[in-house]
UniProtKB/TrEMBL annotation:
The protein's name in its UniProt record: AB hydrolase-1 domain-containing protein
SUPFAM superfamilies: alpha/beta-Hydrolases (SSF53474)
AB hydrolase-1 domain mapped to chain residues: 112-361
One Pfam family in the UniProt entry: Abhydrolase_1
Domain of life per record: Eukaryota
High-level lineage: Eukaryota, Viridiplantae, Streptophyta, Embryophyta, Tracheophyta
């Protein structure tokens, strides 16, 4: 798809000192940001709301999404047929990249390739409700970005500055497609994983057939989005976390079952989805040696690309889906991305929080499958 000129940038975050401290904590293993929503700009692409009979009625009208054979349907919807095929088995593998062990999961033996990219503090297990379902019609891979999950966590202080960046993860993703997937692929991304997917597609456009962005990180603490008077405070706070005991104390306070559960209950609108299994999925690899250094390195990372800088450069179709009740990345701000010519659709998921793939797989899986079928 042809590149488009960038529309007006997303609103700049004007943060007072207390709000900046709260905002500095990242998503899955930190305290949420609560920024005042903005209306953004009028969308150019179609905007629709996925219907869900178990949730409140959507405020915007659209034609209902037809269920796909072999995929879960929301409660109250028509069943997909007399019987469902068994879901493919999910296997776990290790891939060597730059000498580091990278963990990934795989299912499915035929069809288009999908690579699923997690958000901050998460890992490929966060896609456990999606991989086997999508693998019924596709070859599906879910990867642990270096520094997260059960992939290696090299110490950034020993590697020099600027290792844990979107450029590094973009290179990792593209090399993974070349050496493991061995074909072009669709990127399905949540939160900061969306910036990773966009960066990879900019670096090597031939690798990416299309991108689905789920509640992509707005990166409101990016240095470009701070007022001049807030920048020194942000840098001082980041230096305090990275270079003193304060950072490790902060991490230790967050990396407990109780804290992780409380944080997830804030980011999931349906808190019944925050199970003990989910808490362990997020927490366990975060206790590995080196995890604290990666954690602090990323929350002190306020440079790199912004989604609104990468989206106009896309050569592939882009679908943006957003949880209507996301408290960290408000949908009112996310709607600004609908104005890009490279975004073919903006879908609002009613009564869903920041992680639609885990909270509402019955809505997301058919949406992803429909997008893949349109562009295969």
């Amino acid at each position: 798809m042809a590149s488009a000129a960038a529309p007006s940038p997303l609103p700049v975050a004007t943060l007072s000192a207390p709000r900046a401290v709260a905002a500095a904590a990242p998503h899955a293993l930190g305290f949420p940001r609560r920024l005042k929503p903005s209306t953004g700009v009028a969308p150019r692409c179609s905007l629709r709301v996925v219907a869900s009979s178990s949730k409140v009625d959507p405020v915007e009208e659209r034609a209902p999404v037809a269920p796909l054979a072999g995929f879960p349907v929301p409660a109250g919807a028509s069943p997909p047929g007399p019987s469902l095929e068994p879901q493919p088995q999910v296997s776990t593998g290790t891939w060597k990249w730059r000498g580091y062990n990278i963990r990934y999961q795989q299912a499915g033996t035929s069809g288009p390739a999908l690579v699923l990219i997690h958000g901050f503090g998460a890992n490929s297990d966060h896609w456990r409700k999606n991989v086997p379902v999508l693998a019924m019609a596709n070859r599906v891979y879910a990867i642990d970005l270096i520094g997260y999950g059960y992939s290696d966590k090299p110490n950034p202080r020993e590697l020099g500055e600027n290792f844990y960046t979107f450029e590094t993860w973009g290179e990792q993703l593209n090399t993974f497609c070349a050496e493991v997937v061995k074909s072009e692929a669709f990127f399905i991304c949540n939160s900061i994983g969306g910036v990773v997917g966009l960066q990879a597609a900019v670096m090597e456009p031939q690798k990416c057939k299309g991108i689905v962005l789920l509640d992509i990180s707005l990166r409101m603490l990016h240095i470009k989005k701070q007022p001049w008077f807030g920048k020194p405070f942000i840098k001082s706070f980041q230096s305090l976390l990275r270079n003193t005991i304060v950072g490790k104390l902060f991490f230790n306070a967050v990396a407990t079952p109780e804290s992780v559960k409380n944080i997830l209950c804030q980011c999931y609108h349906d808190t019944s989805a925050v199970t003990d299994e989910l808490v362990q999925i997020i927490l366990q690899p975060g206790l590995d040696p080196g995890a604290v250094d990666v954690f602090l390195e990323f929350i002190c990372y306020s440079g790199g690309p912004l989604p609104e800088e990468l989206l106009p450069l896309m050569k592939c179709p882009v679908l943006v889906a957003w949880g209507e009740k996301d408290p960290w990345e408000p949908v009112e701000l996310g709607r600004a991305y609908a104005s890009f010519d490279t975004v073919e659709d903006f879908v609002v998921l009613p009564d869903v929080g920041h992680c639609p793939q885990d909270e509402a797989p019955e809505l997301l899986n058919p949406l992803v499958q429909s997008f893949v079928e349109r562009h295969s």
